[in-house]
Amino acid sequence: MIYKENMESVKRHAKAFWEKELIDRPYLCVTAPKRGVAYPQVEVVNTAENCYKACMSGNYDPILRSFEQVVSSIYWGGDAVPNFEVTLGPDQYAGFLGARIQAKEGYITTWAEHCVEDWENFDIRLDKAPDGYFEKVRRFMEYAAAFGKDKFLVNMLDLHSNLDALSALRGPQELCFDIMDYPELVMEKLRAVNATYPEVYEMAYKAGNMAENGTIGWSPIYCEDKSAVIQCDFSCMLSPQQAREYVIPSIQEEASHLVHNIYHYDGKQALGHIDDVLAIKEIDCVQWVPGDGQPRTIEWMDLLHKIQDAGKSLWIYDWTAEEIKQHYKELKPELTAFSLYVNSQDEAEELEEYLIKNT
Question: What Cα–Cα distance (Å) separates residue 137 from each residue in 29, 37, 70, 224, 341?
């Protein structure tokens, strides 16, 4: 790969990480400005809004050319791998099921219009019309994979499936009422959404040429096999009993389709489900996100220990280089992956050398 010369080292470290083994240091994705290279003035910034525009118009080259310029100016240290995300925003799964995606000028994200008035008159099925979101995303991913060949990878989609997709279709408040008023009907629709997951995943896997290149996502941890980030952000709205009924089986089902996975655990409001989530044997790794206004992950060390004691790895995304040096030994190195951006290539190289020397 032009912008990542030591891919074989990445593959070795990734294989060890997924197998919960240690080579010479924790898994480390560290990026920095490349030494002696000025950051480019790009034509298009790769935000969800701009990606949406490219996907809808079919004019892919400006955003891909700009992305390559950025990639070429970055030092991809340790196990970091350049990767491009095709995305319509966090509600794109709902878009595949019939919701209309909204994008407004000046907003870096997008969202779905709630389109379900009542579940009895809404069929859960993938909209694969030629001008629909599913096919537009597939075509963009195919083009990006060809454009990025030997230069960067194309991400697995950010799949807000299961109850997150139902919430985007119906609205979170309305879905909460539905679960109380029409539990059997909601379960029927949830099972229908879950049944679409393999087809959505396989579309992205094939379009992004991931059988040849491996998988990566908005999580930077590389995998030579099928992997993805799985989640249910809506779980924070549910009681433990409701989560056991609706969330845990859905997560198990999605994880069973993958070789490896990371569970995106978002917000302390969802911690009532922690024991049930950690009991899912198919989950390999957990990303703990405390949520806005909460202490950073380094201040949740008891929870991080609990996750690792359950045999799960951790992806930690918000520690500084100095915090990693000072505190990484408090965690099990074979069960830890760090990702961070530092200010210089020298700093990135020094961090990797430090971890190798001291692990």
Answer: 27, 33, 22, 23, 29
| Cα separation of the two ends of the chain | 28
Other beta carbons less than 10 A from residue 118's beta carbon? 11
DSSP 311: T
Structural tokens at position 51: 């990606």
Element (H, E) at 102: strand 101-102
For β-strands 83-84 and 101-102, DSSP reports them as: unpaired
Q: What is the pTM of this model?
A: 0.96
H or E element in which residue 341 lies = strand 336-341
pLDDT tens digits, one per residue of 299-358? 999 999 999 999 999 999 999 999 999 999 999 999 999 999 999 999 999 999 999 999
* DSSP string for residues in 210-247: HHHH-B--SS---BSS-EEEEE-GGGGGS-HHHHHHHH
Note the pLDDT tens digit of each residue in 30-83: 999 999 999 999 999 988 889 999 999 999 999 999 999 999 999 999 999 999
How far apart are the C-alpha atoms of 94 and 72, rounded to whole Å? 34
Distance between CA atoms of residues 237 and 209, nearest Å: 37
Interatomic CA distance for residues 172 and 174, integer angstroms: 6
- Work out the burial of residue 131: count CB atoms within 10 Å of its CB; fewer than 13 is exposed, 13-18 middle, 19 or more buried: exposed
Q: How many CB atoms lie within 10 A of CB 208?
A: 27
Q: Which residue has the tokens 């100095």?
A: 322
